[in-house]
Each structure stands twice: as structure tokens, then as C-alpha cells.
């Protein structure tokens, strides 16, 4: 008995020693990386004589307000091809909108009202959503409604042991979807069978050590995705290798609330509760830029959601205080605040996303509305 | 059974032995501990591997150059200046999709120098003669937008909520919305509703809040 107990004690000692080694190696790695950070994006751009993007008061304007939700909007997603948007709200509904006409094409009452995320399938035929019920539900928009006029759930993806915080379809595949969860894992699902194809992270795996809040699949290589977590890290995953993350990205000092791939597929952005957005390189692991606007007081508003414009020059970031900054990614300057222009939202920006052709930005807010923003100015030919 | 008793040939059963303690009294705890150690040891090998790979990495400036080349080499419909020809009409596609929406801000400001409505959009809702009927756009209330030439401050009525700069309990907020009946402090954009803590995990319904108080408090952090 004593021998067994000492064995457990021995394990604890090994655990302590291993923790110390991990920390020491982490510090060493950090030091080595610092030596390689010879500049950041803004420093490089300035050295090349780049000038910031400038916006006039009517260059980026709200051209649609989508009204219909009766609760806070938590999530939105555009169809890849057509001009449709799906939104998820505290009112327990998903609404599918025609972004051109503002008309609602579907209002889906959810079996569980506590929805947190939604996504359009690549074909635009289905939508997925997830939330506190720990299930990702799939709805085929072409299904017949039931007697009460509700769209039935086509498939329920069950297996997470915590809330489903984010979901995204694998590009060009209506049958595969990735979810992130409060159970510290991400899961690749086969929607056809309803089964988990791969689990990324978890109790006995190398992965996130706290709730995973956001995911983004690489548009250039759909086998790679990145996740952001309450453990203050972002991790890059290869869908073919679930046992470990390809790379872990440190730097944030708060929850990583939002992650989004940069349009070139070699970088990704993050938005955090520490009030900063950052740009990381997936091949080197370097943190290339921090986007942070100093505030007068100490109350730094957390970033809720981010999106890049189609060229990557602009980074849109929603904040809990209602601000929606437009960052010039090259110069790291805030060039416009959509929270202070005409017809802006009346509350926190909770989600945002770009249309597939990059010509419009949609923002969702706790004020129950979605807004579509587009360029309304005059282009100079240079 | 009767036969065995009768013959008396079957040896008596051994007296029951005291039960041995289970071989692994803390089986789950030990395995768990072992798993934790194994994870850390694996992490160590990953970090060692990463340390080795860092040696051959290119400096950050290389990536920065790639980014600069990428963003400047691609046109962007949301950016004012582009190397391509004028493509401002894409915006009007949004405005003029199937039905022309109320262009009160844009159409009612004939002095705006930046907007040139294409012929494809016939907006019947526009009142080109009057600016007074337009609601005052919010940006007129912020100092950065006072230079706009569309309307003058005196011409339009500013939205009430935009012109209330402070709330009594917050030094920075610009709009106060009473949030929870049970909260002593107001909920404003700039500050969190203190009754809605704790923050993480983000889905916990906090102790002071129920559905009648903060219906959606589960995400209020």
C-alpha cells in the first residue's frame, strides 16, 4: 500500500518536474522567437513609405438594417455564393435573410433557444447552429415545415461535453463541419453519418486547456484550421492529425474570442478579451502585429469578433463597448470606427462577416439588428 | 446436495479470508496523474522539436514583406483608393437591389461631393431639396465629422441618445441603458454590468441573474 502511495507521489513529483521543464522550454522558445522579430508589419510598411487607407464620412456606409430578431444577435454567416445571411439570436431563432432585399426567407425556431453560433453550408442548402445544448443542429432549408410551421432538425451532431461555441462548414463540403466547444475540444463531423470523424484536443490529448471559443478554416487549404481559446492561445490544427496541434500561438493576455484566417492563407488574425487584435504567421509562428487603440481609462473593451477585407488590407473588429474599428492592417492604424458613424448599432457588436465577394460587411449586435455596410464613396484612379 | 452431506467425503470449505485491499486503491487518480505526466512529457518533446525548428526560421520581416505585397497587389471593393478603374457601382447594387430603400442620408444631401448616383438607380424616395427632413446623422455629433459638407449642425435635429454624453455613474459612457433591475449600476457600452460576472466560462448564468433579470446574461461577459 505504502509502495503504491509513494508511486502516486512519485508521479506528482514527475508532474512538477515536467511542468517546470515545459515552462523553461517555453521561455527559451520565446527568447529565440524574439530574436527573429526584427520588425512588425507596421514598421516594415512605414519603412517602405506606405500610407494609411483614408475613409471619408460616406465612404463606408450602412446600406441595410436587417430587423426581425427580438433578442440579441450572437452570430451570423454569409452564403459563399449568394447574397444570403443566416443569423442566430437570443430570441431562439435562426433567420435567413436576403441581404439585397432585407427580406427574411426563413425563420427557424430552435428546439433549444440558447444558441451561440450559426453557419451556412457551402451549397447554401443547409444551416447549422449550436449553443448551450452542446449539440450542433443541422437544418435543410428545403425541408417541409411541420404542422406548426417549424423547420425540422435534419441532423443532430451530439458528442460535445460542453457548449458549442462556434461552427464552420469545411469549404466545398456540405457533409463536413468543424465545431469548437466549452469542453476544450474541436470536432470534425461527418454530417451524413452524424458521427465524429476527429476530435482535436481533450482531456488526454495535447490541445487547448480551456474553453475553445472560435475556429476558422483556411480558405487556401481546407485541411487546416485555427482555434482560439480561453487559455489565451490560438492553435493551428491539421484535420488529418488530430493527436496534436501543429502549432500553438502565444501572446494574448486574455481569452481569444475570435480567430480568422488572413486571405492569403498563410496568416491568421485573432481578437481577444485583452482588447487587442493580433496577426500571426502560421509557418513561422511569429506574432507579426498587434492592433490596439489606447483608451483614456483602464477599461479596455474586449474584442468580440473580427474579419478581414478581401485583400487583407482592412481588419474589422467589433468590441463590447459598441465600437467597430476598421484597422489598416499594414500601418496598424485605426482608420474608421463604425460605432460612430451614421446609423451605427446601439449596442455591442457581437459578430461580423464579409460577403464572399468582399463588397459588403455585415455586423450583428445586441441591439437585435444586423447591418450591412458597403463602400459608398468615389474611387480615385491612380 | 443431499448426497455430498451424506457421504462426508467433500472437504470443508476453507474459512473465508479477509478481503484483500484492491490492488490499486486509487486507480483512477493514479492513471489520471500518469496521463497528466505523459501529456507534459509529450509537450516537452514538442517544445524541444519546436526549439530545433526555430533555428531555421526566417525573420519576421520576410513575412511582413509578403503581407505588404499581398494586400497591395489585390483590389478591394471596400477601400476608397484602388489601382483599378472606378468600381463604385458595386455599392449601388446593394442600395438598388430590388427595391430602393430610404436613402434619406445620402439622397437628401445634394452637396455631398463624393456620391454620384448611377443612372441605374431611380430613387423616388429622395427629397433633394431639403436637408431638414433628414434625421441628423450620428457622425455630426462627433467632432471628427463636423467637417462634413452634407448638412450643417443647425439644420437638423440631433438624435437624443447621441447627444447625451455622460451617465452619472460612468465617466466615459455615452449611452446608458438600464439593464438589470437588480443591478445598482447602469449598464452602459463602456462598462460591464457588474452583476453579470463571473466572466469565464462564458456560458455560466451568474448567481444574481435569472431569466427575469438578465435574460441573456449567459453571454454578458
From TrEMBL, chain A:
Entries under SUPFAM superfamilies matching the protein: WD40 repeat-like
GO-annotated cellular components: plasma membrane
Positions of WD repeats: 66-107, 157-199, 205-247, 249-290, 342-373
Keywords tagged on the record: Repeat, Transducer, WD repeat
InterPro entries on file: G-protein_beta_1-5 (IPR016346), WD40/YVTN_repeat-like_dom_sf (IPR015943), WD40_G-protein_beta-like (IPR001632), WD40_PAC1 (IPR020472), WD40_repeat_CS (IPR019775), WD40_repeat_dom_sf (IPR036322), WD40_rpt (IPR001680)
Function: Guanine nucleotide-binding proteins (G proteins) are involved as a modulator or transducer in various transmembrane signaling systems. The beta and gamma chains are required for the GTPase activity, for replacement of GDP by GTP, and for G protein-effector interaction.
Family per similarity comment: Belongs to the WD repeat G protein beta family.
Name by which UniProt lists this protein: Guanine nucleotide-binding subunit beta-2
Species: Olea europaea subsp. europaea
UniProtKB/TrEMBL annotation, chain B:
UniProt region (Disordered), positions on chain: 1-23
Biological process terms in GO annotation: G protein-coupled receptor signaling pathway
InterPro entries: G-protein_gamma-like_dom (IPR015898), GG3-like (IPR055305)
Chain intervals with Pro residues compositional bias: 11-23
Domain of life: Eukaryota
Keyword list, A-Z: Coiled coil
Domain (G protein gamma): residue spans on this chain: 33-103
A Pfam family reported for this protein in Swiss-Prot or TrEMBL: G-gamma
Matching PANTHER family: GUANINE NUCLEOTIDE-BINDING PROTEIN SUBUNIT GAMMA 3
Protein name: Guanine nucleotide-binding subunit gamma 3
Source organism (scientific name): Olea europaea subsp. europaea
